[in-house]
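Researcher: Here's a chain I'd like modeled. Treat it as a single chain, no partners, no ligands.
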Amino acid sequence: MDAPEKKSPTISDVISEYLRMVERARSKPTMLAYKNGLLVFSDFLNKKSLKPDVTPIENLTEEMFKKFFEHLTSYAPTTEQLYL
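Model: Modeled as a single isolated chain. Structure tokens:
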């Protein structure tokens, strides 16, 4: 009997788990800053037709991160650094 195939977590699943860990380990303002940055990232992915709520995390490529880094150049340098 084969074991059931384990479903890969979505990008949103991984983001949520990360924020839960940050919430336990960091101050509330720090967690909120990280959350805001990840919301910007999620919004960016949605605009690129990569839906975080349904896309498995392994579909997130290095190329997509490069595009996000380029996108951040429109932000103030301190904001850009926070989101990286």
